[in-house]
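Practice record 12: protein with phosphoenolpyruvate.
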Amino acid sequence: MQELKGIAVSPGIAIGEALVIDNGGFVISRRAIERGRADEELARLDRAIAVVSGDIERDREAVSERLGPQYGAIFSAHSQMLQDPRLHAELEQLVRDSLLSPEWAVRKTLRRYAQMFQEMTLSHLADRAHDLYDLEARLLEQLLDRRREALADLNAPTIVLAHDLTPSQTARLNRQWVRGFATESGGEGGHTAILAKGLEIPAVVGSGPLLSDVTCGELVIVDGDRGLVIVQPDQLVLDRYRGEAEQQRCHIAALAGFRSLPAQTTDGARIQLMANIEFPDEVAACRDRGADGIGLYRTEFLYLGSDSEPTEEDHYQAYRQVVLAMGDQPVVIRTLDLGADKVVHATRIEDEHNPFLGLRSIRLSLRNVDLFRTQLRAILRASVLGHIELLFPLVTTLKELRQAKLFLRDTMEDLDEAGIAFDRRLRVGMMVEVPAAAMMIDHFLEEVDFISIGTNDLIQYTLAVDRSNKEVAHLYQACNPAVLRLIDATLKAARAAGVPATVCGQMSAIPHQALLLLGLGLTGFSVPLNAILEIKKVCRSVAVDQCQAIAAMAMQMQSSQEIDVYLKEELKKLVPR
Ligand code: PEP
Ligand code: MG
């Protein structure tokens, strides 16, 4: 049994057989070969090594020519590693004596070397591990004839283990079969984590080295509550987790009692509790859990889930499905938030050193006029079918907001000219997720119909912490007093201006933080599907003045740790488990 600690990003317990996926999407299982086929398999391995050697030599020549021989030397080192007789002997032994496939032999041997390098404290030696991963990928690419088993093609219950899953890979996970996933890298606020919540798949990210020790088919537990990944659990642990999974099923069943009840505090304040969605087919579950609308529809997943660029009709059909399913309840459609970790081919920018500070979100939409207009047309067309509101993400300056609104007006004029109907009173809002917007909120409030605070980004930009980087995950703190002051000031300004405000970042879905937000006067929450009933329960267990007293106390504290502990204690007193 092996237990690894990572970051819990999507709650729940998943138990199942491992599917190990490497960075490039290769699936390598521990495959045995027949004794009589060893020579043939070794010949296949030799051919792969020869091809890779040729490729490396070509890379060396090209790089030396362009950048100088000192850069070409990187590839000479790769060549030397690949020609190392010890490596060949080990690979041969695994294939000839242990009768394992060349793919498995390459994976096992190169990862073992890489791990040895990684454990060395001298950084230039630790860096050699990357060279070995690179070699491994090249060899596997040859051996597998570039075949990659698509994650979408699963047909049995599975726990996916990967070094990293991009948001687009996560978006394609087959929800029918993927019971949970764990990744070696990644952080709490990243989009992969958000997707896991949306898909209601228990998940742990940032576990550190994991893949080298797991074989496809081995039993794995993903504990999405404590952030644990347990490989080959012993019987005692397995029984304990099976028991806990059963208890969770009961807890979820008990929360079902809140489905048809409104999110109303004990002193009668009606809270608007809406849902965050990424895919149209999530709306049925939103309705089932009694959400008051869709507070955030992350439309970029329309791009991330498909290979080709969505057409206006693709957009329209997706919005139509959501708005019709929600009846007269509001559906807040956010325009594309592509870029940073949510990249698609059409918008990929090479060599962005700091993608989270780069051409992402509304900046990217304003640069890709066709992309933006296509989406705005579809939203406007769908706006006659129900109650749609439009939300611009990552607005930083007034100029950006004005440009985006200008595009919207232009698009409205185009539709008018073409005689296509749309809702002329469409409400337009902006996300507050950059400190600059929070600081200038009084001016923004004069130009929008509503605001939605995106705490996931607001935290990362206020604290200068990459939300998807596990190395700084401990510094990503929602309850940091600086973050809380920005939220507090934004909510106060919105109230004074009479502009409705919602929080759609993850903070609103975490019970003790929701308590604080209620105390700061928030009346609009938008949370992932799996948090709707839990937050409804919090709302129905507290009075606003209780929350206000708690918030007043918390706002005097100086550290996020202190605030977190305090809020959790207050939650325990007010909301029975
Ligand atoms: C946020 O930043 O809080 C937010 C809701 O947007 P996203 O997580 O999609 O960046
Ligand atoms: Mg955001």
